Batch of 3 targets.
Target 1
Amino acid sequence: MSYEEAAAICEGALTALPFLRDEGNIQSEQKVLINGASGAIGTFAVQLAKYFGAEVTGVCSTQNVEMIKSLGADHVIDYTKEDFIKNGQTYDIIFDTVGKISFNECKNSLKKNGNYLTPVISASVLFQMLWTSRSNKKVKFAATGLRKTSDKVKDMRFLKGLVEAGQLKSVIDRRYPLEQAAEASWYVDEGHKKGNVILTVAS
C-alpha cells in the first residue's frame, strides 16, 4: 500500500469499523444499507459489511454504481432513479455515512431491532438517540475520533490484516500537493468525490 492509500485507511475505515461492529452490532446474513456508499466512509463501510457476512446495498449516484459493485456490494441503488425509502425493502442496519437521510424519513425501512447509524451529530440526532433508546429501532452515533488510543491501535491492526489479505482497499479520487490544501477542501465541499481526497507531502 502507498502512503496515500494508508492515510485513507486511517480516516474512513477507522470510522466505519466501530460504527458497524460496535454501534450496529453487525451480524452475518443481516441486510445492511450504506447511504453515501461512494464516499470516504462509505467505500470502506461497503467492504467491511461484506467482510462481516452481511447482504450489502449501497446507495450512490449513477456514475459510481459500477465502482460500488466492484467493492462487493450485493445491490446498488442509484438515488437519481430510485428512492430506497419507497421501495419496500427493510434493513437491519441503515448507515447514513453522509447525514443526508433522517431517522424519521427511513425508520419504516428498518426492521424490528434495527439500527440507524450516523456519524453526523446534531441536536435532533441527540434527541432521537434518547427518544429511541428503549425503542425496537434505535438511532446511534459515536464520536469515533475520541476513542482511546489503545482501541484505535487495536482496530488499525485489524484493518492492516484485512489489507494484507486483500479484503480491504482504499479508493482515492484525487491527490493534491500540500500547498493546494484549499483547492482540495473546495473540491471535497462540492460533495461529488469518489472515496478519498489525499494531500501529499514531498519527502
Target 2
Amino acid sequence: MIETLLNKLVEMCANVGGKLLAAILVLVVGSILIKCLMKALCKSKLSKHADPTVHNFLINLIRIGLYVLLIVTIIAIMGVPMASVVAVIASAGVAVGLALQGSLSNLAGGIMLLIFRPFKLGDFIDASGFSGSVTDIGIFYTTLKTSDNKSITIPNGSLMNDTVTNYSAHDTRRLDLIFSVAYGTDVEKVKTILLEESGKHEKAMKEPAPFCRLSKQNANGLDFVLRVWVKNSDYWQVNFDLLEAINNRFAAEGIEIPFSQMDVHVKNK
C-alpha cells in the first residue's frame, strides 16, 4: 500500500517536474525570441520608413501581445484547462476593467492619438497645463521634454479630452509684440521705427510683410502692435532681438516709455 502510494507520488512529481521544466524552457526561449524579433522589427526597412509616432505605438503593442501569447502557452503546458483559464480571465477582466477605468481610458486615448495625429514626435505642444517637445507617445502615456530639461508624463486620456496647442504644426509662425509709448508721441514716427527695425532683422520674413498699427489707448499711454512672420525655429531669437533693438531705438530717438501715473487733487477748505 505504502509502496503504491510512493510510486504514484514519484510519478506525479515526475509529471509536474517535467511540465515545470518545459514551462521554464519555453519562458526562457520565448523571451529571447521576442527580444530578437523586436530588434529585427526595429531595424527592418519597413520600420525605418514608418512614421516615428506610429512605429513606437505599434512596437509597444506587438511586444505586449507577444508576451501575453507566451504566458498563455506556458499555462497550457502546465496542463491547466484552457476553458477554466478563459472563465477566470473573463471574470477577472470585469473586475480589473472596473478597477482600471483610468488606464483603459489612457489606452483608448493612445489609439485615438494614433488615428487622429494631433501631434507627432518632436512637435512642441501645450497641453494639460504643460509645454514641451514630444519625446515619446506610448500606449498609456505621452512624455514631454520641457525647455528647462524636465520630463513630463501626461496620460493619453487627459490629452484626448484637453485642448492641445501644436506650435510645430506649420513651418512658420507669427510673432506678436506690444510696445507702449507716452501720450503725445508722434504715432507715425513710432510706426516707422517699428517697421524699420523689424525689416532689418535677417530672419524676419518679408512675405507676409511686417504689420504695425496703434492698437489701444490705455490709462498710461499708447499701445502699438507689431506682427512679424518668422520660421518656427527662429521664433524666440527674433522675439528677443526685436525687443532689444526697438528698446535701444526708442532711447536713441527720445521716445518716452510710459509709467503708471496717478493724479492727486488737493482741495483747500
Target 3
Amino acid sequence: MIGGINVTESARVAGDDYKTRSILLTEACSTLVAGLFGGVAQSTPYIGQPAYKRMGARAGYTLLTGLFFGLGGCLGYISFFVALIPAAVLAPILIFVAMDIVSQAFFACPKRHSPAVMLAMMPTIGRLLSIEFDNTVLIPANHLKEICMKAGQTIPNTLVTFALGNGFILTGMLWGAFLVEMIDRRLKACSAYLAILAVLSFFGVIHSATIDGRMYLPWTLTEPVAREAAYNFTAGYLALALIIFLLSFTRGARAKIIDEPLGEADAVADY
C-alpha cells in the first residue's frame, strides 16, 4: 500500500494525475488473484515512472512489460535472462532510476523541506547496512546474534543499525512527516506523528529489536538487550513528542514562516 501511494504521488508530480484509490484497488485485486494461483508476493506499481516517461515510454511500455514478465512466469524463461544479463548491465539502469527518484523528491518539495527529505532517507541507509551485516558469508549467523545481543553498559551499535533498518519504508515516511510539521511550526501535528512512531516501535512494526525484524510484545523478548532497545526507542519518541507538544504553546511556534512553499505548477515545471 505504501509503495502504491508513493508511486502514484511520484507520477502526479511528473504530470500524470492518477486516482490513488484506483491504483490501490488494482494492486490489491492483482495480489488476491495471484494468491489463488500460488503467488506469494504482493503486487505494487513499478517505481520509476517519471524516469521511464522521460525516456519516451508510454502505455504500450507497461503493457509489453506485463506481457513479457507474465509469460516469463508461465514459461520459465525469466531465470534464463536473469542469468544471461550481467549485473554490470543492470546496475547502471537501477542507479539511474534511483537518482531520478531521489532528485524528484527535492525538486517537488518546498526548499525548506529539504532536511525532511534527507532525514527520510536515513532508515534506508540503516537497512542497506543491516543487509551487509546479515550476509552469512561474511558473518556467520550465530556470531551475528552474539554481536547484536551482547549484554553490556550500552546497546550494541549493530543492533541499533538493524532496528533502524527494520520497517524502513514506514519509518522514512513518518520521519519525513514529523520533520515537515516541525519545520512548518505545526508542532501539535508533529507531536502526534512522534506518538504514532512510539506506538509502532513499541510493538516492533518499526525499529524491531530482532535480527529478523519480526513484530512482538516487548515484554516477551527473551534477550534483555533487545527488550531494552524496544523500550528505549519508545521512550525516546515519547519524550520528544512531549517536548514538541509543550513547545507548541510558545510564542515562537506561532511566528510566521518566511519561506513560502512552491506552488504545484512551479514544482512540476522545475522538475
